[in-house]
Structure formats: structure tokens, C-alpha cells
Amino acid sequence: MIASQVAAQIKEFDAKGFLVLQGLLRSPFIERLTREVDHWVDSGLRQRSIDAALHPDLCQEPNTVELELMAHGELSAYPPLLELLEDENLLGPSFVFHHLHSDRRPSAAPGKPWHHDYEQRPQRHRRLPMVHVLHYVQGLRPGMGALAVLPGSHHEVAEKDARSHLGTSALPGEVLISELPPGSSVLLHSALFHTRRTGGASAPGDSGRYMIDASYCRTGELWPPVKPYWRRILAVGRDRRLGQGRWAELFEERHFSAYEPDDVGRKV
Known about the structure:
The protein is α+β, with helices and mostly antiparallel strands and 268 residues long. The protein is built from 7 helices and 9 strands, in the order H-H-E-H-H-H-H-E-E-E-E-E-E-E-E-H. It is globular and about 40 Å long.
């Protein structure tokens, strides 16, 4: 499925910086992830994880992290995805898990200005790739808050907010992704500028936009973590033996630099 669907996109990844994986996730995995996202949001666990990242001196670490949710942990080491990432045009054979975030947003939620998510401070080169995989668990429909990407912009060495003054406005050359079937994922080079457009009014029975964002980076230098409790997250991956065997480096701490206080709030 992967080879036939994305072979041409992989060849163009260096030039464009993104590819679309329609139907990467299958039922009943989609159903399990959906239930866990609902639990993560409705129980307040998501908000507690945000508070702990934004205010580490004031708030305790959350009592649960995403990888402790059974299906979310499985998603972090999902074999069809990791096999794809092994391609030399993407991450290659040695890469490490960086983070995972899970959310459910109303279809009419506000957008997010143009930005990229490449973790480097200050931004100075693009020698090693980092990718973000946006899993649209229940798919994406017009009016739900489309994703727009700017092909080729990942080759620029720019700060994350270099285009934020443009808001969510349409840019020349952008590609708009507004409709995807359930279980689809969009893989971005993390330095690719992208934006989330403001959604329209919710349709009857619309439960919102379910999205799980997972990130991975090629080994070879120390990557900055984005949460003060990042070691705990990696430890959960190791304790659960996620990716063990073929992807032995996936949750190893040695690929990260020390957490810096000014990271707070960069990624929640």
C-alpha cells in the first residue's frame, strides 16, 4: 500500500517538503485512537499536560503522558509509518522519536498563523531532517480548518515565526489540503512553513477535528526537547518496548540535549 501510494511523492519530498498518506491508519485502530483522544481531552489530561509544559515551576508533571495510552503508544511506533521513514529521502535507517501531541478541536476553531516546527535554536542549518506527521484520525473535510503548506520553504533557514505576520492568508505557490478520508496522515519536513485555516460552522453531528501530531528526527546531532518531562515520555516508550528490535534507537535519551527553560511553551 505504502509503495504504490507514495513512491512518486517520496522522490519529490526533497523539493516539496511534504507528502500525503491517504488511509494510512485502518479500522479498528482509528476507533481506538478516537476513543483515546476523547478521553485525553474530556478528562482534562490534555490541559494538565499543557499547564505542566507552560509552567513547570508551578505545575506538577501530568500523571499520564500520551504514550501511556495504549493506541497512542502504538501509533508512535506504527510499523507502516516507521518503514516509510527509513527511506533515505526521508529520515533514513536511524532516527529517534521526538514528541507526540493529541487534540480534538471544534471545526470552527481559530486558525494558526504561518510557521514551521523545526527544533533548532537559533535556526542555523538544515543538515539533518526532522519530520512531523499529522494524523487526521477522523479525516478532514472542507470547512473543518484546512492545512496549507508552502512547498520548498523547508530549504530556508528561518525562525519558526518568520511568516507569522502574514496570519493565515493565502500565499503564492501554496498547496491547500482540505479533504482527506479517515485515517489519513500528512508528513511534513518540520522546517516546511504551513498554516491551519480557520474552520467554518460545524455541521450537524460534527464531532470536530481529531489530530495527532507525531515527530521524529534523524540521529547524528543532539536535538532540543520541547517538554520538561521529555525523559519520562521516552522512558514510557522503552518500558512498553515500542519499536524494539528493528527501531532500537527510537526512544533513546542520548540523542537529545538538555532541556532549556526558554523552551517553555514552544510546543504544546
